[in-house]
Write a structure and sequence with these properties.
heterodimer, A: mainly beta, 5-stranded antiparallel sheet, 0% helix, B: mainly beta, 13 strands
């Protein structure tokens, strides 16, 4: 089993719709969690950190479920510019960061 | 301000040759990371530096790969006797780091390595 797993997609989303996807992790000792966004042939950029209580940043909501060992990202009112690959990142003890393979989202008019 | 820079941006090399990739982190960032990303795939962790020490080298794929860092500045990733499977984008990232708290990683534009 991979340390961090994501549905590769693509998730085809009509503009204005809501899309949500999860990321599962295998190491129960994982301490920090993040979502990064990567546009085609570009470097990844931090989208948001994921806190235990869940957090929201505009149209984006991230949640952590430690019991089931997954994090989620929800995008409301999808924009064409939201089309990208969303990378789940998990930090375990020892500061080792593991990236998931990414979930591709395509927002269409 | 200046972000993370990497050079060269593109490198084409013949199988069996050595290559050296360079990363200049953001000034003041103590942590520096190297990743590899093959076409259409996720990021593969290679190595991380805190200052000029590398607490975790477990991601280096083979002994052909090595990395060093001078102080809290530039880092070089060296691949000896390159193989075709080494073809990928090599990404460098830097971040502030205090104890076990993780900060945002800022990525460079990457070096696209093609081994022919």
């Amino acid at each position: 089993r991979k340390e961090v797993e994501q549905d590769p997609g693509p998730f085809n989303v009509p503009e204005g719709a809501t899309v949500a996807f999860n990321c599962t992790y295998s190491n129960s000792a994982s301490q920090s969690f993040f979502w990064y966004r990567q546009d085609c042939r570009k470097e990844p950029k931090l989208l948001m950190s994921v806190y235990s209580s869940g957090n929201e940043d505009g149209r984006f909501t991230a949640q952590l479920n430690r019991a089931s060992q997954y994090i989620s990202l929800l995008i409301r009112d999808s924009k064409l510019s939201d089309s990208a690959t969303y990378l789940c990142v998990v930090e375990a003890a020892g500061n080792k960061l593991t990236f998931g393979g990414g979930t591709r989202v395509l927002v269409k008019p | 301000g200046a972000g993370v820079s990497q050079s060269p941006s593109n490198k084409v090399t013949e199988k069996g040759k050595d290559v050296e990739l360079r990363c200049d982190p953001i000034s003041g960032h103590t942590a520096l990371y190297w990743y590899r990303q093959r076409l259409g795939q996720g990021l593969e962790f290679l190595i991380y530096f805190q200052g000029n020490s590398a607490p975790d080298k477990s991601g280096l794929p083979s002994d052909r790969f090595s990395a060093e860092r001078t102080g809290e500045s530039v880092s070089t990733l060296t691949i000896q006797r390159t193989q075709q499977e080494d073809s990928a984008v090599y990404l460098c990232a830097s971040s502030l780091r205090l104890a076990a708290v993780s900060y945002e990683q800022y990525f460079g534009p990457g070096t696209r390595l093609t081994v022919t």
